[in-house]
Design brief:
By secondary structure, the chain is mostly beta strands. The protein is built from one helix and six strands; from the N terminus they run βββαβββ. The chain has one domain: SH3 type barrels (Roll), CATH 2.30.30. Strands 1, 2, 3, 4, 5 and 6 form a six-stranded antiparallel β-sheet that branches. The protein is globular. The model has no long low-confidence stretch (mean pLDDT 77).
């Protein structure tokens, strides 16, 4: 595998769960946030609008993330992060009962943890 030159920035494909849907987005910067339990994603990449056919899922992503400078995604929602050669079309699909499910994470709702731990 050849290493890229330092001048070219990597492109990441981030797949995560959000409200019963699987989001697949592309970005230039992905890193652990200073906010505990979150991943920071910056510089979103969307496909060119030169195509005659408009993909409704990609348009929904563009509308949702177009004015976003930085997004904080909970780590337990992340399914996969890949470094890719070039960006693809972002998409949103329904999360079906397949073999991917969110990692169980203790809820912090209600303040402090119970004493019977």
């Amino acid at each position: 595998m050849q290493r890229k030159s330092m001048a070219s920035e990597p492109i990441y494909r981030i797949t995560f769960l959000n409200q019963g849907e699987v989001y697949e987005i592309y970005a230039r910067h992905v890193f652990q946030s200073d906010l505990w339990g979150f991943l920071e994603v910056e510089e979103f990449i969307f496909g060119e609008r030169s195509q005659m056919i408009v993909d409704p899922a990609e348009e929904k992503l563009k509308n949702e993330f177009s004015d976003i400078k930085r997004s904080f995604i909970p780590m337990q929602s992340i399914v996969r992060i890949d470094e890719v050669e070039k960006e693809g079309a972002g998409k949103i699909t329904q999360a079906s009962g397949g073999n991917v499910s969110p990692f169980p994470f203790p809820s912090m709702v209600g303040g402090k943890p119970s004493a019977d731990v």
